[in-house]
Write a structure and sequence with these properties.
4 helices; mainly alpha; Helicase, Ruva Protein, domain 3
Length: 116
Amino acid sequence: MSGSPDEEKLEELRQKKMEQLQDRAESQQGGEEQEAARQQAEAQKKAVLRQHLTDDARKRLNTVKMSKPQFGEQVERQVVSLARSGRIQGKIDDEKMKQLLKELKPDSKSFDIQRR
């Protein structure tokens, strides 16, 4: 009789472990699908940017992204949304990119220090 409860516990532990392994396998599949979707969206974004930016404008945007990644991403999203809405005529050159960066640039905080 003492063997029976131990076998039940052992079987219960096996069942729990099997469920955990199945859950982990399912979550990895979901993660792979999300990664594939993210990569596809990134490729589409790069294609839109390549289509609507001149080489100089792309270089400037890459430089901004290297120094300020969040701001660079914001500018990329703005350019992509403008392109998708059809509000970009022709290509954005370096001068237009400078203007766009100035418009989107976060307000710099200035501090006035006064000595007494």
